[in-house]
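Hey, quick one: can you model this chain's 3D structure?
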Amino acid sequence: MSVNPKLKDNLTDQLFRAVQLLKSQDECYQFFEDITTISELKALAQRLEVARMLKHGHTYDDIVSRTGASTATISRVKRCLYYGADGYKIILARLDGEE
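Sure thing. Here's the predicted structure for all 99 residues.
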């Protein structure tokens, strides 16, 4: 899969290189606490959990009750999960130990 040209630029490349240089979960907490707001970080974590739950067949109602995500967020994540750039699929497989 090729990279979306709308996303690809030097600043985004630098951000992704920085993330790849993080060596521990503690370093991730430190970096993301500095670079995002708590709300932004919580939203990212919530989307990943929504994707995980969708992959495992949970219903919208179950996802809403467990994560607090809106149905609009769930719908957007679902669209990305099934028709996106496969980023969710890659990381969920690794988190599940499939790769």
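One thing worth noting: The chain has two domains: 1-35, 42-99.
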